[in-house]
Design goal:
heterodimer, A: alpha/beta, seven-stranded parallel β-sheet, 9 helices, 10 strands, B: globular
């Protein structure tokens, strides 16, 4: 049954998600460089089985230690509301007090996750989890922000979504630390395997993303996948890359929060005025912004 | 302003979730974030999900006739977990005669067939606004 720590964490996440200044500041003071926890990203097309995979991973990993899942679904472009339905696949796990599951809207942000996700991650990390799984919104080809946040990115593919040229394209396949071919019992799985192996798999800085075949709803291939996840973590640690990943995440956090703040200020300006600013006195606005950013960042170095 | 977070859940054993989904969609269209937990949930599962998700309110849908035991059980468990500040409303095929008992057991509102989606969304918005005031 849920203990009060889960309630406290849940409320902290809401505050950060709502960009409450005090909560953001509190989160910013929490370390992101905890090496004991592994942050796993799961991305891939809608209906590919990300939530079902996540359920299997949580179940297995939650037998031994405390694990968390952050599940991102898209917000409505019209109302701003959202249906957060990923946890339907995970409801059988809620009786395990080691498992914390939280659904998040992307709140209109492109790229597969919300802009406050790294700050949320800091808050979650403070509760001593062994693994934190982030499931992105159903991703197409260019939702690659998860690569700036997670230590280990799983890119889920399923058979029969297209021909083998899809495996050659730039974007999401390039961010895979591990390829997961889910629904591997379906016809077409073999040709997907071959296409990924021949066209997408390559060595990057000494790591070659393995191809794992799973049938998530039957729990097939999960143990082997967990072994690869652990192997990637060990590689990150052995090659001193884990902390580099976390520094990248912190940088990404600064960039995302800065963008959101700028947009918030822009929204306050009337559209008519804004439309004229760019051309006003020979592009003065961009020069001013550039100078202002430089000044702020310079002042940071002095601190 | 922060969107209202709602948990829509189906306690008990009936497999009729069309109403729950229609309500979930209507609340989304009213700008709310709706966590949907799917069919056949125990009151324990519902309460734990509500706590993990930090929702402002829980909506229960029941078409099996077991509302008189399931709805109050959710309220009771919330109290046990120190989360009695999360209000609960319900809907489904619920006889008029059962409504006073449910209200007495702590169910904030009961919507029966014929209730309009606008009415439900307005209730949720007003209830959460008043509780947070």
């Amino acid at each position: 049954m849920p203990s009060s720590w889960q309630r406290q964490l849940a409320k902290e996440i809401s505050q950060i998600e709502n960009m409450a200044p005090a909560a953001l500041a509190a989160a910013a003071s929490l370390p992101l460089d905890r090496e004991r926890v592994q942050v796993i990203g799961i991305t891939g097309p809608p209906g590919g089985g990300k939530s079902t995979l996540c359920n299997q991973l949580l179940q297995k990993l939650g037998e031994k230690a405390r694990v968390a899942a952050l599940l991102v679904d898209p917000s409505s472009p019209y109302s701003g509301g959202a249906i957060l339905g990923d946890r339907i696949r995970m409801q059988s796990l809620v009786s395990n007090p080691n498992i914390y599951i939280r659904s998040l809207s992307n709140r209109g942000n492109p790229g597969g996750v919300g802009s406050s996700l790294v700050s949320i991650l800091r808050a979650v990390m403070a509760w001593d989890f062994s693994h934190i799984i982030i499931e992105t919104v159903g991703a197409g080809q260019s939702e690659v922000k998860i690569a700036s946040i997670a230590d280990t990115v799983l890119v889920v593919s399923v058979p029969n979504l297209g021909d083998d040229i899809q495996a050659v394209k730039s974007g999401i396949l390039e961010i895979a630390d591990i390829f997961v071919i889910n629904k591997a019992d379906l016809p077409g799985a073999d040709s997907l395997y071959t296409a990924l192996r021949e066209s997408a798999q390559r060595a990057v800085e000494g790591w070659t993303a393995p191809l794992c075949q799973t049938v998530a709803h039957q729990g097939i291939g999960i143990d082997a996948l967990i072994e690869e996840i652990e192997r990637h973590r060990q590689w990150l640690l052995d090659s001193d890359r884990l902390l580099q990943k976390r520094r990248n995440a912190a940088k990404f956090e600064v960039a995302e929060l800065s963008r959101v703040l700028l947009e918030k200020h822009l929204e306050k300006l009337p559209t008519a005025a804004l439309a004229g600013y760019l051309s006003h006195r020979g592009g003065n606005l961009l020069k001013k912004l550039d100078a202002a950013y430089a000044e702020i960042l310079n002042s940071l170095e002095e601190v | 302003m922060a969107p209202i977070r709602v948990l829509i859940a189906k306690p008990g054993l009936d497999g009729h979730d069309r109403g729950a989904k229609v309500v979930a969609r209507a609340l989304r269209d009213a700008g709310m974030e709706v966590v949907y937990t799917g069919l056949r949930q125990s009151p324990e599962q519902i309460v734990q999900a509500a706590i993990q998700e930090d929702v402002d309110i829980i909506g229960l849908s029941c078409l099996s006739g077991a509302h008189n035991s399931l709805f109050p059980r959710v309220v009771e468990l919330l109290r046990e977990k120190g989360a009695e500040d999360i209000p609960v409303f319900g809907g489904g095929v619920i006889p008029e005669a059962d409504i006073p008992g449910l209200r007495e057991a702590g169910i904030a509102a009961v919507f029966t067939p014929g209730a309009s989606l606008e009415e439900i969304a307005a209730f949720v918005r007003e209830k959460v606004r008043r509780d947070n005031a």
